[in-house]
Amino acid sequence: MIQRGSIYAREIGDKKVLLLKELLEKEYNLEVTLVEYLESEFSLEQEQMHFLYLEDNDIKNFLKECINQEVELYLLPHPKSPNTTLRYGLSKDIKKALSESFEANLRLNDEMLFCNEEMVFQKVSIGNVQNLNKQIYETSFFTNLKIFFSSLKNLKYKAIKLKTKNSEEMQTIASGILILEDYTFFSTLKGNETSSFHDGKLNAFIIAPYSIASYLYYLVAIFLYHKFSIGKLPQNIGFIVTKLLHVKSSGAFHFSIDEVPMSAQEIVLEVKKCSYTINYGKSFQKIIEEKTTKNEDESINLKSLPKGEMRDLLVAGKVPLFKKASDEDIKDTLIGIRENAKINPIFITLMVLSSLLATVGIYQDSIPSVVGAMILAPLMAPIISLAMGAARSDRKIIKASMITLGTGVLSALFFSSVLTFFMPLDIVTSQISSRINPNILDLFVAIFSGIAGAYASAKEEVAKSLAGVAIAVALVPPLCVSGIGIGWGDFEIIYGSFLLFMTNLFGMVVAATLTFIFLGFAPVFRAKKSLLYSSLMLSVICIPLVFSFYSLILQNNDYEKLQNIKHFTFEDKVATLNVLNIKSSTEKSVVIEAEIVAATSLSTKEYAQIKNQLEKKMGKNVSLHVIPKIVIE
């Protein structure tokens, strides 16, 4: 028995339509009728095969009309149906697409997303959803960059109400909402273990970054990383999975259905089961085979979206540079900060003990003793409190922190200098020498330690890391070296070690203040004055640090040159140079401490020859401090 089929097209006299008719009649033994498609209500015969060679909009209208009709539909690629081709994974080769349309394992009852009774092929976008809805790998880098800055410029929020099939009405805000029937189509949302293909539910992504900084992170993640896992979405994205979703606002809002702009005060989104069966392309075979059984449960995750005061702030257009911490987080953190800012007997006791332990450890040249003093020292607490006070412009916290910090500094200097005065030793150990020539690298250590200290104070779960931060920044040892310098009356030691302490102090305060602002404990404008004073002091401190660092670079260059200068030959002698230390280095001169090894003693003239040869090869004046060493073999 010959089966009957109909081809629906706008122009039934088109060459491609006629070739298609001929192909179906010859290769598939069908009796084919050509039907000129008109946008009107119609009823299809169930016994026939219905082939659609239409543009996107015509296919939408066709499917909408026969959503409740139990008929067999066969989609064919049309030059003006890119959305249909993408949604159903059709081959662009019409013969291949036709062949695949007859494969039983690629045919199934369709499901379709509707928005205000309009059929949706790909997506519904409300507001600015950035590149979350794009096929990113199909656009150029410069196009993505242009959209990136456009998205950053047009950050606006709107108060909305959401209601699913089974939930109560929920109030929230969003800068954009993306609704999909199936996120399988979107490269940005691939890489998920589960599929949303024909699960009877829609997927709504509610975008609401807390600040410019979090919005930048979100944009960079989308534009550079490109992919999100549904289970690990960024914190500024809410996610709803449901069969029915109402979205409404107090005023009309703009949205689009498959890039067609529209406007409404309320939209209703619903996934409907279609009675007709339809064909998918070969690229969907694996997805169809792995299609899971339907789960009627809804999933609503809006916990990470702005609430309360933050929500009102964003709707008013006052988007902060950094995320504002919640009132509960601020309250809990400030309780600890205020306690740490206060001076008490425990602080004094620990300060005295750590100072004495550090001073003895420095004399012993014992690293474990000095590290123990670092952990024992309580100076980190008032410094972090001072940073919080500066961030929030809280004079009470600043005053209490400075009193506590000043007491700690004075006690460390007093007890270390007193112990030095009674100590019958006058030796510059490596623990002393390593703390009297600070440079810009020490400032970086202080900055990173300040960030870590502030973060650990704000996050209870990482508070245990504060001991590691205390070791890294080492506040008490340089103070104790200054105390030793006071006991010896050595200005060079006092200056170098106290400069290191001030570097650590102001580096930590500035970095910790900025970290608290970044974590949302205070707006930037509040901390402007405190940051200005701290930054000015830090800038002044940086001047000698930069010179010291430049000297370190010159020393490093000199060491490299000296690597190639090892042996000196005289008439009957050979001398070997072992560089012990470069005490100082400038562009014009260098002070070298070296050991010169020979079989016999060298004369003053021969030492002068060594000095002259070094000056020629290094291109600068050399002051040579020699330790002679005679080796008899």
Q: Can you summarize this structure?
A:
The chain has 633 residues and is an alpha+beta fold. It has helices spanning 15-27, 56-65, 82-88, 94-101, 141-153, 212-225, 285-289, 308-315, 327-341, 345-364, 367-376, 380-392, 395-422, 430-433, 440-458, 466-473, 476-488, 491-518, 524-562, 604-618, and strands at residues 3-9, 30-36, 49-52, 72-75, 107-115, 118-120, 123-127, 158-164, 170-174, 176-180, 202-207, 237-242, 244-257, 260-279, 299-301, 567-569, 574-585, 589-598, 621-630.
Any key phrases for this structure?
633 residues; alpha+beta; Tumour Suppressor Smad4; 4-stranded parallel sheet; 20 helices
